Structure formats: structure tokens, C-alpha cells
Amino acid sequence: MANIFAREHLTGQLSQTKKWDVIVIGGGATGLGVALDSATRGYKTLLLEQVDYAKGTSSRSTKLVHGGVRYLAQGDIDLVKEALYERGLLAQNAPHLVKNQNFIIPNYRWWEGIYYTIGLKAYDFLAGKLSLGKSKHINKTKTTERLSTLRQKGLYGGVVYKDGQFDDSRLATNIAQTAIENGATLLNHFKVTDLLQNDTGKIIGVEAKDTETDAHYTFSSDVVINATGVFTDEILRMENAEAKKSVVPSQGVHLVFDKSFLPGDDAIMIPKTSDGRVLFAVPWHDKVLVGTTDTNLDDHSLEPQAQEQEIEFILQTFNNYLNKKVTRADVRSIFAGLRPLAAPKDDSEKTKEISRSHKVIVSETGLITITGGKWTTYRRMAQDTINKAISLKKLPKKACETAHLAIHGATPTEDRTNHLYIYGSDQKGIASLIKEQPELGEKLHERLPFLKAEVIWAVRYEMARTVEDVLARRVRALFLDAAAAREMTAEVARLIAAELNRDEAWKLNQIEEFTKLANHYCIEGNTVTA
């Protein structure tokens, strides 16, 4: 039986379709969601991603599936309600990747316990039937029992609430697989180079290039959807060189530390830091992830870098709440991500005040652009986007099918002690690879749990094409311990080269490219001054 995830199989579908019902540009959370929604409604769907699924913003989140407690404080009830509903659906549709996470807000002023308890009761209420559990106030003793590294001086107690926690790029990979299983054609490392327009200026398709082979293609469709996040304006300028800026990138930075700095199962949420931003410290894959900052940037790139003052802000703020202090030497990985926020109308709007709700925009050319939003609401964003195409009479009317659609790998996961739990039902496949070749059961690095079999699996069934695809987004080595990821580069390049039949020159190039990248995730190689 043909492997439907193999690149040869997917590129083979390109010549079989004269005209696509829907072409999606961009393979982050939004684009993948749109492709899945489109394919499950029965439309012939093509998605093109210039690098890899979730390469940009969608692999660099705070790993939270949440309603947005801070939007509640800003009075954006509708946004919170929508996100909490989607959080509930996501927990049902991808139970292997989404877990119920306890968060504790430590209280260092007497009134905070009352204030946050009332606010979070409203949060629970808005979640309705899809609530993950009730929030409650706990005393100082209970708080320090649960957060043993928390600063005790001045502590009154804590407020516990529940939200979702997940692995972002693993979910992206699984959504891509689900879309392919439902008949969509998805291609990563495939860059859209231009939009095609007819005599009246209407969009009728795209030009694209397979960056692996340099082969050029022309694809036609009456429905072209721009879901490129911070790259939205590049696509808009293909249809109109004078297009106004529609997106402002806002940078979020995260530092990753060993679990010893937050040894329990609870996460910490600091609702108001010295300058009003929110800080999270979240247990993630046996490490602790601390972020985030909101910094407006004028430009964007595929590999944003943390600024020195962002790193200092996180270290200092985290240390304000710890009795076990972190230093720069404790940082295992550092990563920056860009959020595509809708451009403010004037200078008075700051990033934390720009709404995170999404917008579907239709250009005069007929190009449909989806911007804004967040991971938690990816499914709803996709639904709204395809509904918009239907309302424009560009597609025959069909109902959305994704609300209760199981994502690839979906299986309830109670035991998360074995790191392979994130594969859900695919764990069996990895086990059989190891059975066939026992050496694939060996670890790639002593400090991380990842196995050689996972590299083969990623290439064969998860569309990974490069060392970076594997170590950054299929297994999360780069985000968990950048130095360890750097040290396993040669072995991973060897395994991929054997699987894809690549030569020595390819292997050496991959080692060089990934080593250079990994240096930016190590604290000594990352920082830039603003």
C-alpha cells in the first residue's frame, strides 16, 4: 500500500488536478486548520508551505491551550468564551497532546486572593460544559507544598485554576497528517513565488517552486487563501505592490530551564509584572518553560532572535518569585516567536491592547486573507475562513465537519511518563520500527529521551525533510536543550540521508546549517541588543 505521507506520493497528485477548489498559502496553525476544514468538507485542497509546518510562530508559543485570562481582565468576554469553547474541543479531539494543567497565581498582597478567585470563577463559568475544573483559593502552606521553589517571604497564598497545555508543533504535524488522510495535498518546502491574476485583476491561482528540486509549478484555483501570519504583507504585496501594512509582529521570548526550578506538576502564572506584562512558568517535557514578553518589532524573519533586555526581564522577573535563583548558565534553550497582530490604526495602541481576535479580509482581487487569532482558536479561524469563501459564492455550500473530528494519533493518554505518549496511536508504529531494527531503540543523546526510531518515523510518516524539521519540530530537542540538539546533529543527518538516499555533500550541508541555527538557541549565541 502506498505511503500517503511520502513526498513522491504528494507531488504525484499535482499533475492529476487541473484546477483546485482551494489553495492555502502557509503551513502554520491557521493554514493547516484551513486545509483540514476545506478537505473535510470535500473540496479539492492544496496547501503550500515555504519551509516546514509550524516553522514560524506556531512552534514558538507558550504551549498553552487557553481562553486568555488576561483578555478577561480587559473585558473581552466574547474572545475568552470562544477560546474556552475551542480549548474544550481541542482537549477532546487531540487528547494525546492536550493536557489539563493546574496553574497557581501566587498572592503577595492580601487582597489578591479575593480578586483573582472572583475573576477565575468567571473564567470557569464562561467555559460552561467544557470546563477543565474549578478554580480555588489555597493557603500559604498548600501553596508552598505545591511550589517548593517559590519565594515564601510575603506570601499570603495562591489561587489555582485550570487551563490546557500542549505541544504546538506536534499538533501541527498531526493536523497536517489528518488533512492528508482526508484527501488534501500538503507540501512543505514549497514556496509560493507569485499570485496569478486574470485580465480583470482577479486571482486565479499561484506560481510556486519546490525548493528541494527547484522545479516551478503553476496551480489554478478561484479560492486562494493567504494564511501566512507575519508574512501576510509579502503575499498582499504580490497582488498590490502598494498594499498598506496589515500586520505588526510582536515578539515573545521563552527561556527553558531544568525541571529542578519548578519540580512539581503545577505551572505559575504571574498576571502583572513590573511593566504590566504577563509571565508564565510552565512544566513542559520534563523541563520548565518561562515567558513571555511582548515587544513590538518593525521587521520580521523566519528566525527571530531574543533581545538582551528581554532575556534579562525574564531572568529578573522569574527570580523575583523563586527561592532557588536562576542564572544565564541555567538556560537550556532560548527561543523567540513572532505573533502576527493586526496593525494598529495609530501609535496609541500597544501590543497587549491590540485584540488577538482574528479577521478574515477579502481583497478586491478576491484573495482571502486570515490574520490574527491564536493557536487555541485555529479551528474556529479555519471555519470562518471557509465560510467566507462560501458566502462569496466561490464554493458550493457544505457544513463544517471539524468540531468533533479526531486529530491523527488521538487516543486518551493517562500515563505521560514515557515521552512517546505524544505520538498517541502512532506509538505502535514506532515500537514496530524498533522491533525490526533494535538499534533504532537507542537514544540520540544522554540528556534527552528521544530515540533514533523517531527520526525515521518523522521522515517516513511526518513529512520531515531536514535535520531542523526533525530536531526542532518533530522531536523538540532544539527547544528543550539546544546544546544537546547540536551534539546529535551528525547522527540525525546520517539517519535522514540513509532514509532519503542523500549524498555526503547533503549531509555535510545539513550539519553545518543546523549547527549554525542551534547556536542561536544557546544563550551565548543568541542575544542581540536592541
TrEMBL record:
Q: What sequence ranges are listed for the domain FAD dependent oxidoreductase? A: 21-378
In terms of SUPFAM superfamilies, this protein maps to: FAD/NAD(P)-binding domain
Q: Write out the entry's keywords from A to Z.
A: FAD, Flavoprotein, Oxidoreductase
Against Pfam families, the record matches this protein to: DAO
Q: Which GO terms describe its molecular function?
A: glycerol-3-phosphate dehydrogenase (quinone) activity
Residue ranges annotated as coiled coil are none
InterPro entries hit by this protein: DAO_C_sf, FAD-dep_OxRdtase, FAD/NAD-bd_sf, G3P_DH_FAD-dep
Q: Report the PROSITE patterns cross-referenced here.
A: FAD_G3PDH_2 (PS00978)
Q: Which cofactor does it need?
A: FAD
Q: Name one GO biological process term.
A: glycerol metabolic process
**tRNA processing found in the keyword field:** no
Entry keyword annotation includes Oxidoreductase? yes
Q: Which family does it belong to?
A: Belongs to the FAD-dependent glycerol-3-phosphate dehydrogenase family.
Know the name of this protein?
Glycerol-3-phosphate dehydrogenase
Q: What is the species of this protein?
A: Leeuwenhoekiella palythoae
